[in-house]
Design goal:
single chain; mainly alpha; 0% strand; elongated; disordered N terminus
């Protein structure tokens, strides 16, 4: 008999009754109303009414079409948890079998392992999207349903099955992360050797899944090498045509060559210049040949008409090359370093500051002392005697004047007088 205060509801009369109470209710509202009544019936231990309401709800609940959550996702989770809780409660502490529905009496005939395995497989089929061409997997199983299944396995004393369900559920996020890491991140970084070694020593995946990953990595590597070969063809640098030499460039190059040839001056250069002036202007390019002579004999070169000009320019440049080729000595380096600090302006400024101003101040003070022959008071006489009794030297007085002049200059600069 149903408990007091709970109205019995058959699977065939549930929907018409609510249709008369509400005008065309939606599926979500219907499922929510059925769930409220089923929860109250379960709390009052009305097994028959709870089983009937669960059957009515799952007649409207089908597996999702796409992996994305839909509007009925929360209702699937709540109803599946209620169904697992009801069946595990009846299985662990069964009431009178005559009062149970046929579906629950068939559950009592199963072994604990078969009971948990059947419940787990049914939940996987409920939450796996129907559009995916794969067997039901725990990748889409909500963790709340998994917790209920684990608690049911503990209630019927099957902790081994609870461990298997937990490890199977945990392997799916790990497998997904590993797929992103090995098939997307490392190939993007072109770490082919590393990803192969990583998969070789990885021990959490199954052997079949590991082989699939390794095959996928090899295919991705082959495709990447093929794409790289087609996208980066060999670049041939363009050939730059060399400009045709002109008469002026040839003559300048010959003059440069002759400028680099060691040709000493000789007394007979004037004669050679005379011959060069009489020569034709068409002989613009000429060769300079030096014949071999003994050591202490100066070679006599054969020159062309343009050699005299080259010799004059070379003799003017030879002293400069000799002076610049020698490395400066220590004294020269010291002079150069001091020149950068002691310029003419700085020397003048230091002379005025440390020599002229102290001397002027000293003479003005000396003149002032001589002008005042007799002190005005006894205190001035005492100061005069004390100053004379110290017996300061000239250098000390000069140093005091220098310091006083510097301090006066600083005060004048701070007051805006300079």
């Amino acid at each position: 008999m149903p408990a007091q205060g709970v109205l019995p509801l058959k699977a065939g009369s549930a929907l018409p009754t609510m249709n008369t109470a509400f005008s065309s209710p939606s599926t979500e509202e219907t499922l929510q109303l059925l769930y409220n009544r089923a929860a109250r019936a379960f709390l009052h231990r009305d097994i028959v009414l709870t089983t009937t309401l669960i059957a009515s709800a799952f007649a409207m609940l089908q597996p999702p079409v796409a992996p994305a959550p839909d509007a009925l996702n929360s209702h699937r989770r709540k109803w599946d948890i209620l169904r697992i809780t009801l069946e595990s409660t009846v299985y662990s502490s069964p009431p009178d079998r005559d009062t149970l529905p046929t579906a629950l009496r068939e559950k009592l005939l199963l072994s604990p392992q078969s009971f948990i395995t059947t419940s787990h497989a049914r939940s996987l089929a409920l939450f796996t999207p129907s559009s995916l061409p794969r067997n039901p997997t725990s990748a889409f199983l909500p963790h709340q349903v998994l917790i209920t299944l684990i608690a049911s396995s503990l209630k019927v004393n099957c902790p081994a099955l609870g461990r298997e369900m937990t490890e199977d559920w945990l392997s799916n996020p790990y497998e997904k992360v590993l797929e992103l890491y090995c098939l997307h991140i490392l190939p993007r970084l072109e770490e082919w050797d590393y990803v192969k070694e990583f998969l070789r020593y990885e021990s959490e995946l199954s052997a079949e899944k590991r082989i699939d990953f390794q095959t996928s990595v090899e295919n991705i590597e082959a495709q990447a090498l093929k794409d790289h070969a087609t996208q980066t063809p060999a670049v041939i640098p363009p050939r730059i045509p060399s400009p045709a030499p002109s008469a002026s460039s040839s003559s300048s190059s010959l003059s440069t060559i002759s400028n680099r040839t060691a040709v000493p001056l000789s007394p007979g250069s004037s004669k050679l210049r005379g011959r060069g002036s009489a020569a034709s202007s068409t002989s613009a390019t000429s060769e300079v040949t030096v014949t071999k002579h003994p050591r202490n004999h100066t070679p006599t070169p054969r020159v062309g008409p343009s050699s005299s000009v080259v010799r004059h320019s070379r003799t003017a440049q030879e002293p400069i090359v000799r002076t610049t080729g020698q490395s400066p000595g220590t004294l020269e380096l010291i002079k150069r370093s001091l020149r950068t600090y002691f310029t003419a302006n700085r020397i003048t400024t230091l002379s005025i500051l440390f020599l002229l101003l102290p001397l002027v101040s000293y003479f003005i003070r000396l003149r002032h002392v001589r002008a005042v022959a007799t002190p005005a008071s006894t205190a001035d006489q005492v100061k005069r005697r004390l100053f004379d009794a110290r017996g300061d030297s000239v250098l000390r007085r000069l140093w005091n004047e220098v310091v006083r002049a510097i301090l006066d200059t600083i005060r004048m600069g701070g007051g805006g007088l300079v």
